[in-house]
Write a structure and sequence with these properties.
Blueprint lengths: L20 H8 L5 E7 L8 E7 L19 H14 L2 E7 L1 H7 L1 H14 L7 E5 L10 E4 L2 H4 L1 H24 L5 H4 L5 H10 L10 H9 L12 H4 L25
Parallel strand pairs: 1-4, 4-5
Antiparallel strand pairs: 1-2, 2-3
Helix pairs in contact: 2-6, 3-4
């Protein structure tokens, strides 16, 4: 039987354990250490994708009070929890997938591969892995997707904090080089501020040209992607007069968005 489809034995979750209940139940059944995995930047149209894995110490709930989905925390609380998780975790790993790799493989494939890499990089081999929302095949341990895992499981929440704070700091550094896009404010997500910057300046080398809005902006500004892009369904739909946006290494536009390779 494939490891990733093994289901844990039935266990009673105590109501007073909050988001520590699930991993606590797995530990009691002898399935620990339990690793949580989560990502940051999946929906952004600029910047890297960051994936983290984390193994927390059983019984550390009091020391990590306030740990929850990173998106529900203030920036100050996230920074504090980031340092605390790094200090208290039994083990953790962070994988940064650069923009060019996201464009070449697509967001979903990059995310799945990044989660595998994040688990594989753990020095402590997990007995079980909890993922946020969807199944991840090919992990090195049995796993289970958890709906709203970053709120329901502390180890997933810890991974979400590690991923988000790491990515936010990367985007803040990118702002220093590309201040016109205000990456320090929207972190590469498709906000009104970001859309206006794309309209005015066109895409930068840190934008994801596989996203339709970025490809359209590139066409409008006569720009080429700085790296190879595997045209997704969304990007292929961005056509002007039946011609897809060109990319470096393939400078001949093809009708209907089609391109060799």
């Amino acid at each position: 039987m494939n490891a990733e489809v093994i289901r844990p034995p039935r266990a009673v979750l105590r109501r007073d354990t909050g988001n520590w209940g699930l991993q606590g139940a797995l530990h009691r059944r002898g399935l620990g250490p339990v690793a949580g995995v989560d990502e940051a930047g999946r929906g952004a149209c600029a910047g890297p994708l960051v994936i983290a894995s984390c193994v927390l110490r059983p019984g550390d709930a009091a020391r990590l009070d306030g740990l929850t989905d990173s998106k529900l925390m203030t920036a100050t609380a996230r920074d504090r929890m980031f340092d605390l998780v790094k200090a208290r975790a039994l083990d953790y790993a962070v994988v940064v997938v650069p923009t060019a790799e996201v464009d070449l493989k697509g967001v979903h494939v990059s995310n799945i591969e990044g989660m595998r890499r994040a688990v594989a990089r753990l020095g402590t081999h997990p007995g079980y892995v909890l993922t946020d929302g969807f199944r991840v095949p090919g992990l090195t341990a049995p796993s289970m997707p958890v709906i709203k895992g970053d709120q329901a499981a502390a180890c997933v929440a810890a991974a979400s904090v590690l991923a988000k704070v790491t990515r936010d700091r990367i985007m803040a550094r990118l702002h220093e080089d590309l201040p016109e896009y205000r990456f320090d404010v929207h972190k590469g997500y498709c906000t009104g501020l970001h859309t206006r910057a794309l309209t005015e300046h066109g895409p930068s080398h840190e934008h994801r040209w596989s996203f339709a809005n970025v490809a359209a902006s590139g066409v409008a500004h006569g720009k080429r992607a700085p790296h190879r892009v595997a045209l997704s369904v969304a990007a292929a739909a961005v056509v002007q007069n039946g011609v897809s946006p060109p990319v470096d290494g393939d400078r001949t536009p093809r009708p209907g968005g089609a391109r060799n390779g």
